[in-house]
Structure formats: structure tokens, C-alpha cells
Design brief:
The protein is an alpha+beta fold and about 130 residues long. Helix content is about 40%, strand content about 30%. It contains 2 helices and 7 strands, in the order ααβββββββ. It has helices at about 1-25, 30-55; strands spanning about 60-65, 70-75, 85, 90-100, 100-105, 110-115, 120-125. The longest helix has 26 residues, at about 30-55. The relative contact order is 0.17.
């Protein structure tokens, strides 16, 4: 299964550039917004295939996108917990759970922790 996911990921990654080019070529605002949405879905597909190729290490509740700059990923649910790393605006993370105002996430490239709920937007949910 992991080999097939890796193979599909490479095919879909090639398509991702085409979707992004489609957005650049759009004639009007409505076309641009639709093409950008399609490109966004394509990026989610590539991230999902990355996860399947590497193996999912924990629960999967859906995807979220970071909607603020330099968001702190913390070891626990609260501002006093140690910093794991910073997340960039637009980065896609996997939702693994919720704890009050905090969302437990895993980063497809590695690392997991908690972010404050206002800094992520659910993209696709289970």
C-alpha cells in the first residue's frame, strides 16, 4: 500500500503544478478563485498521499490549514507548554484531536503538538 501511495503521490505532485498554472491563467476573478480552490484540493491530496506513503502514526480526523504567521506548535494544550516548532501560514496539518481551545495536530513532514484553535481552519473533516 505504501509503495502505491508513493507512486500516486509523484503523479499527483506533477499535476499540482498544472493546477497552480491554471490559476495563473484564469481570465476573471471567479475563474481564478475556482482554479485556486482546485489547486488547494490538489495540495491536500498530495499531503494525504505523503502520509499514506510514510504511514499514519496516530488518529486522523481531517486536514487543517494554518491561517496565521509563525504559529507556535506546542508540546501540550496551553501557552505554557514547550515550543516544538513554528508553523507557517498556509501549512497543512492533520487534525488528531481537540483539548478545549487547542487542536492536536501532526505535521506531514514530522512533528506533532497543539495549536490554538483560532490559528487553523478545517479544510476537510472525517
Amino acid at each position: 500500500m505504501r509503495e502505491l501511495a508513493a507512486e500516486l503521490r509523484e503523479r499527483e505532485r506533477d499535476l499540482q503544478a498544472s493546477y497552480e498554472g491554471l490559476a495563473r491563467e484564469a481570465a476573471g476573478e471567479a475563474e481564478r478563485r475556482l482554479a485556486e480552490q482546485l489547486a488547494s484540493f490538489q495540495r491536500l491530496q498530495v499531503v494525504g498521499l505523503d502520509m499514506l506513503a510514510a504511514g499514519i502514526g496516530g488518529p486522523y480526523l481531517g486536514f487543517a490549514r494554518v491561517v496565521a504567521d509563525d504559529v507556535n506548535l506546542r508540546e501540550g494544550a496551553g501557552g505554557r507548554h514547550a515550543l516544538v516548532r513554528r508553523l507557517e501560514r498556509g501549512e497543512v496539518v492533520v487534525i488528531q484531536g481537540f483539548a478545549g481551545n487547542w487542536v492536536k495536530v501532526a505535521c506531514p513532514g514530522g512533528g506533532e503538538g497543539y495549536v490554538f484553535k483560532d490559528y487553523v481552519q478545517v479544510e476537510v473533516s472525517a
